[in-house]
Amino acid sequence: MTTAKVYLIPSLLGTSPHQRVLPDYNIKVIESINTFVVENEKSARKFIKQVCPEKVQADLEIYILDKDTNAKDLFDIIKLLDQGKTIGIISEAGLPAVADPGAQLVKVAQEKRIQVVPLVGPSSILMALMASGMNGQNFAFHGYLPIDKTDRKKRLSQLEAESSKTGIAQIFMETPYRNNQMIDDLVKLLHGETRICVACDITLESEDIRTRSIKEWKNEKYDFHKRPAIFVMQAN
């Protein structure tokens, strides 16, 4: 039986001090291994250097697993598991394997009966839900909504209807430079009593989390342009 493990290592959501959001145990794990599967090498090395400044960067084995990883490269990464190597998976931001390509490798590890160890860290999705005041018992995450305006409006109407019928809190994301446009679309499309939470810059000094009804958003002053945000919807 292999002694290898796959550690799911949360990274930071921005430039906040790592002591605020990462337990000491995470740092010990990072210190103990040198093989990492990451979404972006530059940001992963920067993160490792920040939390473990004494770790020798030249000793690190970095493998890329992103949305463009082909079958051959994925096979090369899988061979690490077959060799019995303990590896750490690091996402670009937040939790690996949640809305993240690392899920592909976790699936293989589970199939091979290799121990997968999730570590504690910041999740923008759950933290937004926590702070929204919406239904934490019944919720759904939809990732990015369609870019096409017609398809996006159709999808937003579907999510509002589902939330109204079932009480499910609907969670989704937008590319940061389209955040303000998303709010404009929500205001134009949804019912006045539907509530929207915009959770922006979570864990950062500039954190801004607001829940307002659609009719309140019409008069709200805001600017979330180019700032990472999560949207939570709850319809009556």
TrEMBL record:
CDD domains: RsmI_like. GO terms for biological process: methylation; rRNA processing. The keyword rRNA processing applies. Pfam families: TP_methylase. Residues 36-216 form the Tetrapyrrole methylase domain. GO terms for molecular function: methyltransferase activity. The keyword Lipid metabolism does not apply. InterPro entries: 4pyrrol_Mease, 4pyrrol_Methylase_sf, 4pyrrole_Mease_sub1, 4pyrrole_Mease_sub2, rRNA_ssu_MeTfrase_I. It comes from the Bacteria. Keywords: Cytoplasm, Methyltransferase, rRNA processing, S-adenosyl-L-methionine, Transferase. This is SAM-dependent methyltransferase. It comes from Faecalibacter rhinopitheci. The lineage of its organism: Bacteria, Pseudomonadati, Bacteroidota, Flavobacteriia, Flavobacteriales.
